Amino acid sequence: MRRPIVDPILAALLAALVVTAGCALLGCAAAPPAMPAQAPTALTPEEETFQVAVAALRVEVPRPFPVLVEIVEIDGPYLGLTLLDPSIGGLRVLIESRQSFQGLIDALVHEWAHVAVWGASSEDSHDALWGVAYARCYRCVRRALDSARAEMQ
Ligand SMILES: [Zn+2]
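Above: query sequence and zinc ion SMILES. Below: predicted holo structure tokens.
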């Protein structure tokens, strides 16, 4: 089973929220997962690459609210979900862990397009506005991963 990946910046923010909010957050069904007590282990190359994609999206397709990205097992037929999470004052992007690495990246791009148009899209969540955002996210991630690969060679 793949261990959940939590964006390090937002993980620190969430850890601070848990500390300051105490059991009110911990008792909530939407509460973030408990942070490991030990130091984080080194990321695998795939985890590093995933983080490169998330970091590129944060820079090139930014939003003015927190966006937490996690790779987890999702109940139901979803490869990814984007949910409003009042406990972080922003959005939580869940990526289904039981898929290929390319699937993780594809789901991240798809979900970040929802992040990009959150609050502006029509009732059809995959409308033209979302489609334009998807293209922007796709190009952003492709450029970032191409650059990362070039640096490794
Ligand atoms: Zn969608």
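The chain has one domain: 8-152.
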